[in-house]
Amino acid sequence: MKMRTLGVNLSKVVVHIDLKGSPPKLAYLESVLPLFKDLGVNALLMEYEDMFPYKGNIASLSSNICYKEHELRQFITAAGRAGFEIIPLIQTFGHLEHALKLSEFNHLREVLLYPDSICPSKIESMTLIKDMLKQIVLFHNSIYPLKHLHIGFDEVFHMNKCAQCRLRNETDLDIYFNHLQKVKYIVKLWSPNTTVLIWDDMLRGIKLNDFEHRDLTNTEPVYWDYAPFLRVSHNNLYKYHKNFENIWIASAFKGAEGRTATLPSLRNRFINHVEWLKFIFHYKFGGENKIYNFKGIILTGWSRYSHMDPLCEILPVSIPSLVLNLLLIKFFQEGQIENAYLLESSEIFNRFLKNNVNKHLQCEDDISLENFETSSCTFNGHQIYSILEQYIFQNDEILDKFNDVKEGLFSLEYYYKLNHLNMNTILPAIKWCNESLLDLIATENKIFNLMLQYYDVLVVQEYVNYKFYDGKKKLIGLLKLLKHYYINHTWYRNPPHRYKFHSG
Fold first, then answer.
1. Which residue from 23, 259, 335, 433 puts its CA 20 to 30 A from 419's CA?
2. DSSP strand pairing (43-47 vs 114-118)
3. Pick the residue with more confidence: 409 or 80?
4. Which residue is catalytic, options 30, 85, 155, 338?
5. Dihedral angle over CA of 391, 396, 397, 401, nearest 10
């Protein structure tokens, strides 16, 4: 293959830190900054939600385990000195559950039943948004100049539904863009040189001429797609190109395998990034000869699908996925292989990335995309990764065995009524329940203790309680039932006759 020096031009490589309801300890985040730096990261997207230390009238937005102001200031200062730009992400339209769930703000919902979307027509809504943005912007500008601010604007599931919005007699599109203008004005008021980022999904159905006469200055969309095989629309990108100064893209290194996923799929996350990088490699818009340079890539790492959802993959066990995909981005940026965009993902990994991944994860044995084995690795987080693999195995085994035993419960119940149980069946089942429950509790305790290195105890309690709730409930319920059959059985006291013969 020919060598070349022209690769993918991405000026910003951003790692998304999703803090909602589960902030990693700042000491841990600071400890991974050298690794991020070595892998080419130059910015962090900090999605605060309820983890920013708000003050005054909006202090109730902050969780009891939110970051302390002096600790957060110290972290941002350290990150800045290390060369990282900090980009705050504050939701200002949809995904406002952390605010709209509260009694003092629930009247600001667009639809009373749903706490996700705020009504943009209420004066109090804009006051709340203004107060949030003011505190975030002033705090960050007091440390380093705020270059970018992400205001969300994705998945606004309820818009133009309330009576006050409908009285405006405007289309959904007008309401969306008018709210965008108001939020941008607030940002400009406190930080005139800050560029606003928005997720792009609410723009995808808009026609090209519907962008006309909209003030989109200092606004840049982030086109996100987290699937292994992209569904990116060239038409949508063209519309953004014609109306915005820059376009960003967003992939996912974790938080895209399902609401209750425990570990990220290395294969799925890798293919997602490969597909994105192939897609933007020497990208040209129709009718243009010049290669278009996307401004940056945000590697999203969702901790929850929404504020009301359970925790999915935690950050420490997602480091292998992050390392792998940051190395992939560097590979495409360096442009050493002319036809890299033609290679299969497995070939890219095996020929160009595997050794470096092993090195950064401190693995003695080669890793595999299909079956990542951590036993020979010593990266920070390998222990909890291994024990969570054990949890997955245990949980699956318990579910399979439970279903088998459950299928036999009908016969147990039937013969119990006949006072006729087979102890050779029931006693091993009781033993299996006891042993499985003890093993599950032991694994739970190990995960609890390991997670305390990275998270507050309240986060750890929520995580392990949710993960182990179903398995323990099934085992305890089954054990209770089996013991009931065993204890109340009268076999030994009054053995029944299996057959009774009656003479004529």
1. 433
2. unpaired
3. 80
4. 155
5. 140
pLDDT at 251: 98
Residue 351 DSSP class: I
DSSP labels for 6-67?
-----SEEEEEEE-TT-PBPHHHHHHHHHHHHHTT--EEEEE-GGGS---GGGGGGS-TTPP
Q: Which of 263, 281, 261, 267 is closest to 229 using CA atoms?
A: 267
Bridge partners (DSSP) listed for residue 85: 43
- Cβ 180 vs Cβ 220: under 8 Å: no
* Total residues belonging to the chain: 504
Does the pLDDT at position 419 exceed 70?
A: no
- Which tens digits make up the pLDDT trace of 13-57? 999 999 998 999 999 999 999 999 999 999 999 999 999 999 999
Residue 95: the pLDDT is 97
User: 416 pLDDT exceeds 60?
Assistant: no
Q: Which helix (H) or strand (E) holds 114?
A: strand 114-118
Q: Write out the H or E segment, with its range, that includes residue 253.
A: strand 248-254
Strands 12-18 and 85-89: unpaired
Rounded to an integer, the average pLDDT of 65-94 is 98
- Number of other CB atoms surrounding residue 15 within 10 Å: 23
CA-based nearest residue to 63, from 17, 21, 103, 105: 21
Assigned token pair, 457: 């105890």
Residue with tokens 């504050």: 90
Q: How far apart are CA 371 and CA 1, in angstroms?
A: 30
> Is 155 assigned a catalytic role?
yes
Contact predicate 249/293, CB 8 Å: no
Separation of alpha carbons 5 and 20, rounded Å: 40
Q: What's the confidence (pLDDT) of residue 490?
A: 47
Distance, in Å, from the CA atom of 46 to the CA atom of 139, rounded to the nearest integer, reads 14
